[in-house]
Design brief:
The complex is a heterodimer of chains A (277) and B (65). Chain A has 277 residues and is mostly helical. Helix content of chain A is 74%, strand content 0%. Chain B has 65 residues and is mainly α. Classes of the chains: A mainly alpha (277), B mainly alpha (65).
Chain lengths: 277, 65
C-alpha cells in the first residue's frame, strides 16, 4: 500500500523528523561524549571532543556508586514489580473487559482516581506505618508499593487489549468445555501477550527510574537502588562530572539494550487474523 | 547548588524556590512534622482533584455525543 503524498509534504515531514531526531539524540550524544572526558575539561567546554579518552571514568563510577550492589537491588526490585503488576493487572483487566461487573463504573473511577492521587498523599503515612512494622530497607515491601502505584495504569492499558480480542474465541473455548481459568490462561493470555509485554516494559522502565519512593524507603547503603546511588555521586559543593556522566550511561545502558532487543515484539499486532469476516 | 560555582546564590530567603511537594517532603522527614506534611499533601491532591474533575466532565460530554 502506498500513501499518495506530494513531494513537498514528504520533504517537510523529513525535515521535521530530522529536527526531532536531533532533539532526541543530542543529549545522549553529549552524555556519551562527556563520559569519556576528565571533569576539568567538561567544566571548560561541555561540547568539545575529548582529547584523550578516559575509560577510567567508568571504573570509578562503578566503584564509587557501588553499582555491584545497587544494580542487584534495582534488578530485583524491577523484576518483582513487573511480575506482581503483570499478574495482578492482567487478571483485573480481564474481568473489567469481559464480565459485566455491575459496579464497573465505580471501579473504573476508583482506578482513575488512584492514578491522579499525588504520591505525597500516601508517602508519609506509608513511611511511618512501614517504620512501625519494620519494613524500611525491605526491597519486597517497596515492590509492593510500586505494584499498588502502577497497577491502575496497567489495568487501564491492558483492558483495551482484552477488549480487542474477539468474543467468539472465548465462546469457542467455552463450547469446547474450557473452564474460566483455562479460557484466561490458554486463550486470552497468549492473545494479549504483546500487551502484557508492553506493560512489563513500561512498568519496568518506571520502577527502574523511580527515585522518590526508593530514596525514602531504602536508606541503608547496601539496599539502595542504582538511581539513588547515582544521585549520591553528586556532592553539594563539588561534582566529578565525567564520573557522573559515566554512571548515567551505565544506568541507561541496560534499559536501551532491553528496548532495542524487544522492539520487534513491542510493536507486533495482536490477534492478527484469528477471526475471519 | 548543582552547578557549583557558576550560579550566584541570591539573597532570597531559604526554601523560597520550593514547590509544594518538596516542601511536604522537607516538613515530614527533616522537621519530622508529619501532620503538617499531610496537610500540604492534602492541598496538593485537592488541586489535582480540581484538574481531574474538569477532565472527567470533558470525557463525559464526549461519551454522550
Amino acid at each position: 500500500m502506498r500513501l499518495v503524498e506530494s513531494r513537498a509534504t514528504l520533504g517537510i515531514t523529513y525535515v521535521v523528523l530530522f529536527f526531532a531526531l536531533l532533539v532526541a539524540l543530542f543529549p545522549i550524544a553529549l552524555l556519551v561524549l562527556n563520559s569519556l572526558k576528565p571533569a576539568a575539561q567538561i567544566v571548560q567546554n561541555p561540547l568539545s571532543v575529548p582529547e584523550a579518552i578516559r575509560w577510567d571514568n567508568f571504573a570509578r563510577a562503578w566503584r564509587d556508586a557501588r553499582f555491584g550492589q545497587t544494580f542487584l537491588n534495582s534488578v530485583l526490585l524491577t523484576a518483582l514489580t513487573i511480575v506482581l503488576v503483570c499478574s495482578n493487572a492482567s487478571l483485573t483487566a480481564y474481568v473489567l473487559a469481559r464480565h459485566k461487573v455491575k459496579s464497573w463504573k465505580i471501579v473504573t473511577f476508583y482506578l482513575l482516581g488512584t492514578t491522579t492521587a499525588p504520591i505525597q498523599l500516601f508517602l508519609f503515612p506509608l513511611y511511618f506505618g512501614f517504620a512501625r512494622l519494620g519494613l524500611i530497607n525491605n526491597v519486597f515491601a517497596v515492590s509492593l508499593i510500586y505494584t499498588a502505584v502502577y497497577s491502575p495504569f496497567a489495568v487501564m492499558l491492558l483492558r483495551t487489549y482484552f477488549l480487542a480480542v474477539p468474543r467468539e474465541l472465548e465462546e469457542a473455548a467455552i463450547v469446547d468445555g474450557a473452564s474460566h481459568w483455562q479460557v484466561f490462561t490458554k486463550v486470552m493470555l497468549p492473545l494479549v501477550s504483546p500487551g502484557i509485554l508492553t506493560v512489563a516494559l513500561i512498568i519496568g522502565l518506571f520502577s527502574w527510574n523511580e527515585f522518590l519512593i526508593a530514596t525514602t524507603f531504602l536508606q541503608k547503603a547496601d539496599r539502595q537502588t542504582a538511581v539513588v546511588s547515582f544521585f549520591l555521586l553528586s556532592g553539594q559543593y563539588t561534582s566529578d562530572w565525567g564520573e557522573i556522566m559515566a554512571a548515567a550511561l551505565i544506568i541507561v545502558l541496560p534499559v536501551v539494550i532491553l528496548f532495542v532487543a524487544l522492539q520487534r515484539r513491542f510493536i507486533e499486532g495482536i490477534a492478527g487474523g484469528s477471526v475471519k469476516g | 547548588m548543582l552547578f557549583s560555582g557558576n550560579v550566584e546564590m541570591s539573597d532570597l530567603p531559604p526554601f523560597s524556590s520550593e514547590v509544594l511537594s518538596t516542601m511536604a517532603y522537607r516538613i515530614a522527614f527533616y522537621d519530622l512534622n508529619v501532620g503538617q506534611a499531610a496537610a500540604v499533601a492534602l492541598i496538593i491532591s485537592l488541586i489535582g482533584l480540581v484538574a481531574t474533575s474538569f477532565y472527567i466532565r470533558l470525557q463525559a460530554r464526549e461519551y454522550k455525543e
